[in-house]
């Protein structure tokens, strides 16, 4: 590694107690897991690309969290982050993803034939839908830590991969800048009674299972809305709380 993280070396001139962040008013998974002892053990470590513990936790330090929504509060800068800082990240991942352990294997199912429904959603209530997926590319840092050159290299690689698609998947690549998302997203107001519905689960479920959760959930919400419009009770439709 040609360069060390000089900023982290500067921080090491101060004691762990002096550098440990005040998380007493924070509501995120990182703040639940990180202790002063854990901070002291990990603060001098860094990944081969120079990602440090303070880089991992800074977003959670800057953003205390939502009073009703438990945010994650930390990020990974590269693949090695998950190993170097596993004492912090393994418990965070387990808490956030329903007990998902380092030994668990993520499931995959890309067969759309296994999906039940989704093409019969009432258009009077469902305005639009989309399926979004994200993947990292081995050999490149992750977005919180990648450079401009890396981003351009990822774009070039993506263009080459997309250009190889044929048939119904064939298309043209457009480099987008800012886009208007519209109504929705966490902490945004609902405009005109329109809500952006998405599933909170990620790890431990296949692609079909994740989409199925949204389909089933949206159908339930539509059924509730129709009953409420008629002045009927929805008590029997309310899911049991876990």
TrEMBL record:
Where is the chain membrane-spanning?
none
Sorted keywords for this record are:
ATP-binding, Kinase, Nucleotide-binding, Transferase
Example GO BP: phosphocreatine biosynthetic process
- The catalytic activity of this protein is classed by the Enzyme Commission as 2.7.3.2
What Pfam families does the record point to? ATP-gua_Ptrans (PF00217), ATP-gua_PtransN (PF02807)
| Species for this entry | Tetraodon nigroviridis (Spotted green pufferfish)
Q: Which PROSITE patterns match?
A: PHOSPHAGEN_KINASE_C (PS51510), PHOSPHAGEN_KINASE_N (PS51509)
Q: Protein name, please?
A: creatine kinase
Domain (Phosphagen kinase N-terminal): residue spans on this chain:
11-98
Keyword set includes Transferase: yes
Family assignment? Belongs to the ATP:guanido phosphotransferase family.
Q: Which residues are listed for ATP binding in this entry? A: 128-132, 181-186
Broad enzyme group: transferase
InterPro entries referenced in this protein's UniProt entry, alphabetically: ATP-guanido_PTrfase, ATP-guanido_PTrfase_cat, ATP-guanido_PTrfase_N, ATP-guanido_PTrfase_N_sf, Gln_synth/guanido_kin_cat_dom
- Residue ranges of every copy of the Phosphagen kinase C-terminal domain listed in the record: 125-174, 176-228
**Example GO molecular function:** ATP binding
